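User: Please fill in residues for this 179-position structure.
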């Protein structure tokens, strides 16, 4: 089957449709599960869960520090933008890009210096790299039921798509009629 759009002609195959649907289903389910996870779990609990799943500790620590200090970085960038808007009167593009480059360089240097101060303070206070939490995390029956529900939903969705595409192939229906 082929599809013509303006001057272009696209050939559509069943393998291409399978690949397209595979990508769409996986990305949609991934985004759906990510939205559910972020709306029902606090960030410290999410980090503790990653730690329990044996995600490398360095990655979990980096995510923790990023979450804690991203707001400080945004505030510093806003201060630099405010200072630029008060002091800069140039209108040529070359000068604007040059000023923006200087701002990015200053932001990088300030961030690096602040990170060194924070790291020194953490070492002095005895930071060991372990993420501490007051909550006790256990696998409950509700967690098992939730996982079973997600797996059953995924199997139903995928089997429905497979059944629909196989029915279209057997009946000889055009792709656009079947979907």
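Assistant: Residues filled in for all 179 positions:
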């Amino acid at each position: 089957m082929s599809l013509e759009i303006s001057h272009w002609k696209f050939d559509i195959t069943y393998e291409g449709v399978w690949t397209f649907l595979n990508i769409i289903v996986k990305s949609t389910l991934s985004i759906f599960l990510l939205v559910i996870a972020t709306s029902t779990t606090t960030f410290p609990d999410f980090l503790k869960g990653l730690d329990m799943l044996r995600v490398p500790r360095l990655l979990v620590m980096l995510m923790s520090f990023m979450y804690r200090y991203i707001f400080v970085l945004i505030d510093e960038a806003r201060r630099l933008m405010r200072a630029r808007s008060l002091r800069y009167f140039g209108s040529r593009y070359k000068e604007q890009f040059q000023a923006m480059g200087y701002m990015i360089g200053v932001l990088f240097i300030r961030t690096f210096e602040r990170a060194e101060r924070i790291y020194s303070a953490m070492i002095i206070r005895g930071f060991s790299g372990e993420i501490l939490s007051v909550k006790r995390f256990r696998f409950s029956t509700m967690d098992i039921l939730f996982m079973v529900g997600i797996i059953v939903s995924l199997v139903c969705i995928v089997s429905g798509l497979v059944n629909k595409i196989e029915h279209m192939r057997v009946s000889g229906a055009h792709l656009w009629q079947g979907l």
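For context: The helical segments are 14-40, 43-52, 57-87, 93-124, 141-171, 175-178.
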